[in-house]
Amino acid sequence: MSETPKINENSKQEQLEQFRVDDANQKMTTNQGLKVSEDELSLTAGERGPTLMEDFHFREKMTHFDHERIPERVVHARGSGAHGVFELYESMKPYTKAKFLQDPNVKTPVFVRFSTVVGFRGSSDIVRDVRGFATKFYTEEGNYDLVANNMPVFFIQDGIKFPDIVHAIKPEPHNEIPQATGAHDTFWDFVANNQESAHQVMWLMSDRAIPKSYRTMQGFGIHTFRFVNDQGKAHFVKFHWIPKLGVHSLVWDEAQKIAGKNPDFNRQDLFDAIEMGNFPEYEFGVQIIEEKDEFSFDFDILDPTKLWPEEDVPVKIIGKLTLNRNVDNFFAETEQVAFHPGHVVPGIDFTNDPLLQGRLFSYTDTQLIRLGGPNFHEIPINKPVCPFHNNQRDGYHRQTINKGPVAYHNNSLAANTPSPASESEGGFVHYQEKVEGKIVRSRSDSFNDHFSQVKLFWNSMSPTEKNHIISAFSYELGHVKNMAIRQHVVDMYGNVDSALATEVAKNIGVNPPTTEESNVTKSSPVLSQENTFMSHETRKVGVILQNGFQGEEVKEVLQGLNVSKIMYETISDKQGVVTGTNNVELKVDETFTTTGAVLYDAIYIIGGSEVDEAFYKNAEHFVNEAFKHYKPIGASHDGVKWLEESNLIGSPGVVDGSGQKFIKQFIEAIGAHRHWDRNVI
Ligand code: HDE
């Protein structure tokens, strides 16, 4: 009899618990368990003599250290992970037989890793790049990995071109410059010569490429997958993650400064939010197309450079992911987790999307080199919570102790077990799609329209978002030394929109496009971040104050922020404590030297009777920088003078006053995220 696993939201944590070790309050030992008597001095012949070969403690410690690093991921090297739970809102039984999508009472443990794509493992979080959003569902039928990105389309249509795009965007090989950015010749040379990249590159130039937080970022499975139900009927499906806090981004000038002030900005935000109990939440959505409608669209639904406009194929919200636990050890969990789009469960199947097909090979292959052999599924973070049995044996670092002499199939000695499971017993049976055709290296013409959906995206942007896109193209292409490449890209985007391409051309010193723009007039409002959900919750305010501030009133405002789940940090010129009227004391969290306006979502400026000139100037810089980045600014008491002297009073998102009315207005301004209608030069 095979075991029937009982899985609940704690199953993965219970499994991991067996591997967790707390070294605190223990005696130090070698890896063989021998107690160590001295850890600071090598064994030497005489106090001033040479180190001895027999010092096994030194040798073990140093050897282990020498081998501490493993190869970083060839892409998505920089990442941050967290544990969580997936809950289903309604049964997907009509569409899929996947067990974790049947019963809304089932809670599935998950591990999620967010990442940038291009930068090395130690690079900044805050770069213009696609973000990864990979989720491992530990289900009773095995691990299901949804290895997604934060943009719904990809650069290329065929997996065979992946090494090319990655070589082009990574630092140039002769001097390994520049780090974690596409703003250089080889990337744009690739783009210009591979026009299927037009759509993804447009997203890359949009605000989506600089997410404010992993908590405010969407996820897209990109490929078209299949749902298969228990009757064997299939539907095409695309997967979406939608953050409950809305989709929010940084502005480019701010992003570049954050990259210096706190390269861990996104990682820190995720970690802190989970530690504080502000658990990030994302709803799970599916877009479903019936098999009979495969050819009813003006694009090929297998083309990964195309999205399914949500106005045509609505997103059905079916569940929720909550991230509720940080990792205990970054390397053991976040670094060693191994995702693979080919880790599927019965009821979820592939399509002939040629990019997906390429991925199905690459992911196991890459883990073999990165994690050092074929047993990476035994690493605790990767281990399924359901049992697994087969005749695979041995290899580096094998943990499982398989009993008995039989490691082959068919056999009589073990009654022909482990035995394959029939479909009704939960065995995975590939969807029996009918395929026929000649063996060719060519692609269907239905993949050839590279510009219509780029125009759809452009049409959907607000004026502010369009300006950001023009600036991003101008910044990136402005870093390209070869003028022919610049011209080539301008001509390429002339196929999308001539106003866009002409503006960029002016900024980068090349000719306006000679190409003809797309005549698509349709737009898709959900693509604009201006239509996203707005919330003040868990935003972080920098509170600038000095001794002599208005004690009681400031306390009231800070309480008001707290009640509304808004975080704050106090900022002054020195660390320690600041004292206001009525002896109200506040601990200073940061100083002008340890932090910066770019690290906050809003500034609340108060001042105090002991403000001197240096304080004034530093605080002025904070206020002006926040203003320039369209952030909400609140001021009370002495704080108002900063607004007056910088002529900011009355500007959108700038609030002054005191008491409950001020608190309400300031919170509203914070909830609006950014105030784009400001006059910023
Ligand atoms: Fe990946 N990708 N990829 N990718 N990808 C990897 O696998 C690859 C693609 C994505 O947090 C690698 O374990 C090929 C699309 C994420 O550990 C590697 C192709 C999408 C992550 C690989 C693609 C992704 C990866 C590197 C084109 C969005 C990080 C390390 C055929 C749907 C997972 C690793 C994590 C990682 C190959 C295209 C998402 C080399 C060949 C499209 C989120 O196997």
Automatic annotation (TrEMBL):
Annotated Gene Ontology cellular component terms: cytosol
Residue sites binding heme per the record: R73, R113, F162, R359, Y363, R370
Crosslink feature (3'-histidyl-3-tyrosine (His-Tyr)) location: H340-Y363
Domain of life: Bacteria
Keywords annotated in UniProt: Heme, Hydrogen peroxide, Iron, Metal-binding, Oxidoreductase, Peroxidase
UniProt enzyme class: oxidoreductase
GO terms (BP aspect): hydrogen peroxide catabolic process; response to oxidative stress
Reactions the enzyme catalyzes: 2 H2O2 = O2 + 2 H2O
Single GO term (MF): metal ion binding
EC number: 1.11.1.6
List of catalytic residues: H76, N149
Protein's name according to its UniProt entry: Catalase
Organism: Oceanobacillus polygoni
